[in-house]
Amino acid sequence: MRTFKHLKTVEKLGFVAKYVFLLGCVCTALFPLVWVFMSSFKTNAEILSNGISLPSRFSFDGYTQALKISPILQYFFNSVVITSITTVVNVFFLAMAAYIFARYQFRGKNILYLLLSLSLVIPMTALLHPVYMTINALHLANKKSGLVLVYTALNLPMSLLILRGTFQSIPRSMEEAAVMDGAGFVRVFFQIMLPMAKSGLASAGVLTFLNCWNEFTFALVLTSSQSARTLPLSLSYFTSQFSFNYTAMFAAIVIAIIPSIVVFALFQEQIVRSLTAGAIKE
Amino acid sequence: MKGITGKRFVPLCIAGLCIALFAACGGKKSGAVIINYPTFQCGVNTAAPVVEQLIAEFNQQYAGKYEIRKEDVPGDQNYVDKIRVQLGTGDVPPVIYGGGYNLLDPALARDVVVDLTAVINGDSEWKALYSDTALTVNSRDGKIYASSSEGSVIGYFYNKELFAKAGITAPAASWDEFFRQCDTLKAAGITPLALDTADSAWISMLWMGAIIATENTAGLAFMQQMTPNNYNTPEMIKAAALIQNMLRNYTTVDAVGGAYEHAANNFLSGNAAMIANGPWMMGDFSDTTKTSAGFADKVGAAVYPGGFVYDAPIQGYFVTKQKDPALQEASIAMVKFFTSAHAQQVALEIQGMVPSSPGVPISDQAKQKWPLLVNFLDQANNAQFRSDNLQATMYPNLLDIVSQELPRLAAGSITPEQFCQLLTEGAAKNN
After folding, report:
1. SS3 track for chain A
2. Which pTM was predicted?
3. Which of A137, A183, B144, B411 sits between 20 and 30 A of B111, alpha carbons compared?
């Protein structure tokens, strides 16, 4: 194996350029996180006067204030419940739908798929009024279940797109072999197809989780009490038209983003694998 | 088959979870009429403790009969957005606080507001709290729809230490003197003004309104007009030109694109000598998370050059039409309580808010807590000209145009005439 000093000059330059580029990517990705983390230790004046300076002292006052000013822990719990249930429900039902779209022919299949996919391009704000009225009519306003229903629906097109591609990439011979061994439709789906679509399920699940975790507008409009409010709303407690507490807000952001980072870190391999899985077909 | 049974357990659990979740029923019932009250006055909002106290007092006074349940809608714009969505669907909360966002007119356009004229005229105590300007702000077509609790008496604050460093002994009496003072401060290496352009440019627009109002009688009449349609007036164009000058020559580098908090920080950090804002900012002068200890002693308050002060009640609370007459009655009781002399006194003592009613005295406790306010109100009482602020009188859609176009005005991409024309065109969309 050749070491760095044995490389030709051009190869050395290429090697260095590659690592400089990678370092640039890492810095770009990490900068916002580090900036938010450092800001949670700065005073309001330090944050507003010089955004990229280091804190003059490390104090956890911001975290104390964050917990005092907004019901962040209650909202955190609500977010965990709503996001988790939405993710499970979304992935479970859409895996079934996506399997049918990927494997079976039926009248109106393409139109139905197109219709479901088209909802990707409808702006969220255009959905506010009809969704608000629907949820009110269902008596699901100000309930976690209302948000679960809305988030499940909002994430439908993306999950369907990912999971359909995933199922299409699984060789048909696997199902045929299972059928030959006597497996029925349900058994083929749950015992053969679902385990093989693990990467797609993880990808759809992670994207649904992140979308739900960060969603703000519907959480604001469809809820009115602390029992159903989610974490993004808690960040609004720290700024108003004539008042602000950025130290506490950045501390709250740190608390809010930790789960997203953990989920992404745990499942990043599956996400990347799944995003390329649809490219290979039988 | 055992394996399949085990695998089926998972989807069955999910289905069960869904059913349990969706079957969850509403909150507990009590004998009292529940008033769900959404408010943005929570979190770091300076009025949050006032609202908390008033709700606690109301619930105690009407225990068993009425009960307010506060719904936090943190963030002023979030509140406005939510109320607009609710107005669009017709499902409105029983009591809405108009604040500085003129929510009364969109609500009236939807015909959801209760006419309070008969109730207020029949209640001498309540009626006595209405000044002439309060009646104007809260009435439409001779009918009273809302009730104010807070007055909006706004001048500007200045840093006495920075003024002294530049050799300035007193706030300017005229606009010519004001701009001479700006030059003097600048020559002394001090940034004269803390300004903003984002989030409807509250501070910059306060200066603009003051310039318009003191230009001539037509300017003052313009400022006293609700929802003007024509901004192509000589007074408005001149004010826009002066604001352009202020943004280019007399403010901090972060003013263009900056929001209120940037301007406030520049003043609180001693980076700028003057800021236009209301008395609610006074609490920040002694908040050591935002400024240095002892800063409050360095701050002076003044009315605007030309003897002008913003003086108008902030559009108050209004009741919306409800199917349940008991809820409507409870809501009227809440509005009366929240705008009573006692409530105004509470807001004054806790927050330093000026009462909307001239009949509410400044208590000794308030005088002790807010000496700067007392000093400012003395000056405000002697001001020659007064009106509501520009943002309170303009159509709500113009606020976005202001935020969008002020940076272009500062950059010279548009002229003051074009700026005014854009506002006029924006206003025309409401007709």
Report:
1. CCCHHHCCHHHHHHHHHHHHHHHHHHHHHHHHHHHHHHHCCCCHHHHHHCCCCCCCCCCCHHHHHHHHHCCHHHHHHHHHHHHHHHHHHHHHHHHHHHHHHHHCCCCCHHHHHHHHHHHHHCCHHHHHHHHHHHHHHCCCCCCHHHHHHHHHHHCHHHHHHHHHHHHHHCCHHHHHHHHHCCCCHHHHHHHHHHHHCHHHHHHHHHHHHHHHHHCCHHHHHHCCCCCCCCHHHHHHHHEECCEECHHHHHHHHHHHHHHHHHHHHHHHHHHHHHHHHCCCCC
2. 0.81
3. A137
